[in-house]
Structure to design on (910 residues):
């Protein structure tokens, strides 16, 4: 059960089928045509459109949209959110994977299920629960108000909601891999006198580094791109609590199409870079 | 708790895992449950049985179901083509499948809205040739959810097709089965559990999806208003009770779905003697 | 049904898997395709089945040209190396598959299918497993179910790819005997692929030895053992001592009795049991010394070292029955005389 894909060895797609299993030519070309049309319509077309729309009023309009103070503030906030949430969830992912794959304990499968929990919660609800906790009418609402601490409609709320949303990404990649690897190599290192830390850095980490990067990459993409959850807790205050995805929405609703698509194209660029790195990591991991 | 391993670091890692899990996930989620205890049963029924709420549930579930079904059909073909045939640009298309995962939903939302709005590239075409309006209708929601669903289907089916024991197909053919019989009687039954899992994942995601839908949906109450949007609306009206009741219902339904998927997978594995 | 292969060639990229194969298999035989891994034996079997297309050449079954016919229309039974049982079907449904996919006109009724499947499961002695799934069976059971499934369509030819390859040694022994008996009862032309010469000799009525995509020799097991066509076959089938005239002292070979005036070729292959050992009375001049021996059940294998030689060429293996060895009362380090009864000469 996962919302993120586990890496597929891309080299496996290059294997030729045995002759007896080859479908008739018309079936092959027919299905290839359907598949490519479907992907073109639903994936390539949106991809091209972002690029096209962003530059539709010329490169200058694009730059001026991007260099607005609000846009820059949104970019800064988005980077800040990712910078806080990704490392935290990475540390968690490694710790959780270590505990789950290297030890036996009661409630292990329950713990694994609980880690997946945020994947099955609607983004809107993910934001809503933090409103219930820290909002004006929330559990801590009065106390926060009295101490003049703002969480909802402020940066901490955005970070919390993003933490929740991207919570399982790294753990999800590491657990199956470390499960499959077993702990023989680590036991060998320990029996040779290496300390626990030394064993982790010298034996475990080199083995899981590609999967770890893969998880971090997906976690980062989601952290920078999350919309629903962040939208609920942000309050959409321009220049203050607008992340880049929220900035896209605000511009779009203000009929500032170029502005919306200029910001959107940054996020689309992020998605494309993510895809490229992801494919590169899949090859790396396959050739490990 | 037992530790039958010489591995170090159980206490710190499990300690941190449980603490962090509680702080980030369990405590925040449980507030929703506790908050809902403040509602009486009658209040709850009142909120949920409101006509606008019910139709939003109907819209959300119906569109998610339809989108997951359409994406399953085409996603299966895409996975099949990617695994079984060789053609130019195959690796490129393979990499593109994850684009909907990688693209922020807000961007997906405005892009799809732009494509399908009546003045948009495809919207105009569909309007003029078939007289079909996509944007601001449930059909628009379906389109957005198909986009979101593609990777779920392809990424669950692809590995199963890759690992599929092709000698089973050869065995079928050697026993006199036609290619179509081999597909329907041997390949499909073995891939079906994965397809069903992908379908359920896509459906669960589709029901809760917000960002990619709200721009294209038009959000007309009773017609194209989805449940997550209704929660946001209630929240903006400071109707915390209403939002809580709807959110809890959604949450319970998604957990039931999750349970169903796991039970299904268990059943399939048990049925084929793998347990 | 007889099988005729004429001038079959098959390349995988630059690799030539089969090279102008001509082979005729008469009806009712149980044939082993024997060779080292990568020799093309499995490819040949798959070409006969129609699972693979030859680049060149023709496949005739009962005199009919089937070269371009699809596997599903050839009427062959194929047993796969890892059985390829349908995991999502019970044992019963696996065996019934071939009957259920027949065109409606030829398809037997459900009752007839059921009767036939149970009869086949009885034949392989596994009817009690009919409602199990393949994942719940042992290797030997899967093997027999795979065979029953292939037999259900009454194939005119039965093809088996390494039928015992994935099994434990003890199960393998039993199944070999069982397959021989089954073939005897059904009398369907059968070909199986193996890399195990012992298996080929024990089970088959005809052995075809393949190497590097070419047929080295075809014949009955005793033919192949007693009259190997070339050095490869001689080496591949059974144990052999190799004496190269250019490496060995010809005087020594003459004392051992294999250098005869009418010999042809430079390399002699000698079976271990063709070497006769006697305790030497010559002392230091004796041709060999007994280094060690191993019990192989009824036989004893003796490891001898040629006196006055060293390296791998210095070792000679001989075999003799247990009781004969006891009578000789030999100890390690004893000098022995040795006579060679028979040798095969190759160039």
């Amino acid at each position: 059960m996962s919302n993120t894909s586990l890496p597929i060895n891309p080299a496996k797609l290059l294997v030729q089928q045995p002759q007896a299993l080859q479908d008739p030519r018309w079936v092959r070309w027919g299905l290839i045509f359907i598949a490519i049309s479907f992907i073109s319509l639903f994936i390539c077309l949106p991809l091209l459109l972002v690029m096209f729309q962003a530059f539709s009023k010329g490169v200058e309009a694009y730059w001026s949209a991007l260099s607005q103070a609000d846009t820059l503030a949104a970019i800064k906030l988005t980077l800040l959110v990712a910078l806080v949430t990704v490392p935290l969830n990475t540390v968690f992912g490694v710790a959780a994977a270590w505990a789950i794959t290297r030890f036996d304990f009661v409630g292990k499968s329950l713990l694994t299920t609980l880690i997946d929990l945020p994947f099955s919660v609607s983004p809107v609800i993910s934001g809503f629960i933090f409103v219930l906790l820290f909002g004006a009418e929330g559990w801590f609402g009065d106390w926060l108000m009295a101490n003049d601490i703002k969480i909802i409609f402020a940066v901490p709320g955005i970070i919390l909601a993003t933490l929740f949303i991207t919570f399982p990404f790294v753990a999800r990649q590491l657990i199956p891999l470390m499960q499959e690897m077993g702990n023989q190599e680590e036991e060998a290192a320990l029996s040779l006198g290496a300390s626990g830390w030394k064993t982790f850095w010298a034996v475990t980490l080199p083995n899981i580094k590609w999967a770890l990067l893969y998880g971090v990459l997906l976690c980062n993409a989601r952290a920078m791109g999350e919309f629903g959850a962040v939208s609920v807790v942000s309050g959409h205050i321009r220049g203050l609590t607008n992340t880049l995805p929220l900035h896209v929405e605000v511009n779009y609703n203000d009929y500032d199409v170029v502005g919306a698509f200029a910001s959107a194209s940054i996020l689309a660029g992020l998605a494309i870079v993510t895809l490229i790195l992801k494919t590169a990591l899949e090859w790396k991991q396959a050739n490990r | 708790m037992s530790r039958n391993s010489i591995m170090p670091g159980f206490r710190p890692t499990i300690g941190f895992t449980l603490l962090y899990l509680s702080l980030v996930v369990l405590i925040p989620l449980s507030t929703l449950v506790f908050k809902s205890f403040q509602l009486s049963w009658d209040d709850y029924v009142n909120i949920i049985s409101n006509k606008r709420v019910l139709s939003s549930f109907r819209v959300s579930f119906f569109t998610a179901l339809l989108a997951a079904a359409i994406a399953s059909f085409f996603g299966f073909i895409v996975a099949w083509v990617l695994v079984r045939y060789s053609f130019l640009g195959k690796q490129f298309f393979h990499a593109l499948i994850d684009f909907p995962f990688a693209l922020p939903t807000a961007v997906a939302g405005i892009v799809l809205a732009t494509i399908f709005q009546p003045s948009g590239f495809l919207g105009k075409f569909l309007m003029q040739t078939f007289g079909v309006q996509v944007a601001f209708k449930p059909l628009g929601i379906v389109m957005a959810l198909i986009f979101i669903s593609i990777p779920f289907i392809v990424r669950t089916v692809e590995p199963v097709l890759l690992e599929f024991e092709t000698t089973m197909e050869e065995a079928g053919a050697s026993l006199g089965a036609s290619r179509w019989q081999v597909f329907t009687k041997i390949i499909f039954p073995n891939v079906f559990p994965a397809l069903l899992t992908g379908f359920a994942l896509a459906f669960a995601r589709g029901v809760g999806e917000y960002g990619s839908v709200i721009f294209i949906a038009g959000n007309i109450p009773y017609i194209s208003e989805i449940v997550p949007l209704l929660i946001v609306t209630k929240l903006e009206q400071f109707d915390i009770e209403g939002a809580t009741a709807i959110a809890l219902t959604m949450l319970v339904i998604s957990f039931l779905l999750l349970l169903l998927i796991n039970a299904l997978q268990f059943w399939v594995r048990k049925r084929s003697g793998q347990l | 049904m007889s099988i005729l292969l004429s001038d079959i060639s098959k390349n995988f990229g630059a690799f030539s898997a089969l090279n102008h194969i001509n082979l005729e298999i008469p009806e009712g035989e149980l044939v082993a395709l024997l060779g080292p891994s990568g020799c093309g034996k499995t490819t040949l079997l798959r070409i006969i089945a129609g699972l693979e297309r030859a680049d060149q050449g023709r496949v005739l079954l009962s005199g009919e040209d089937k070269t371009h016919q699809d596997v599903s229309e050839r009427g062959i039974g194929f047993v796969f190396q890892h059985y390829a049982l349908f995991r999502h079907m019970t044992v019963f449904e696996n065996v019934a598959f071939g009957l259920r996919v027949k065109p409606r006109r030829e398809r037997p009724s459900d009752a007839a299918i059921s009767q036939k499947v149970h009869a086949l499961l009885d034949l392989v002695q596994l009817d009690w497993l009919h409602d199990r799934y393949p994942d719940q069976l042992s290797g030997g059971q899967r093997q027999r179910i795979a065979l029953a499934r292939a037999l259900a369509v009454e194939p005119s030819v039965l093809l088996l790819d390494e039928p015992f390859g994935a099994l434990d040694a003890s199960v393998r022994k039993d199944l070999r005997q069982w397959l021989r008996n089954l073939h005897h009862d059904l009398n369907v032309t059968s070909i199986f692929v193996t890399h195990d010469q012992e298996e080929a000799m024990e089970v088959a009525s005809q052995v075809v030895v393949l190497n590097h995509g070419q047929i080295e020799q075809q014949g009955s097991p005793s033919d192949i053992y007693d009259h190997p066509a070339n050095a490869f076959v001689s080496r591949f089938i059974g144990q052999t001592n190799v004496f190269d005239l250019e490496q060995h002292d010809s005087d020594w070979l003459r004392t051992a009795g294999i250098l005869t005036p009418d010999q042809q070729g430079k390399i002699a292959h000698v079976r271990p049991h063709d070497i006769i050992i006697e305790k030497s009375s010559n002392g230091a001049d004796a041709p060999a010394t007994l280094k060690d021996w191993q019990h192989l059940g009824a036989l004893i294998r003796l490891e001898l070292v040629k006196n006055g030689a060293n390296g791998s060429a210095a070792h000679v293996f001989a075999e003799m029955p247990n009781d004969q060895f006891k009578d000789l009362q030999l100890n390690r380090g004893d000098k022995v005389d040795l006579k060679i009864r028979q040798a095969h000469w190759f160039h």
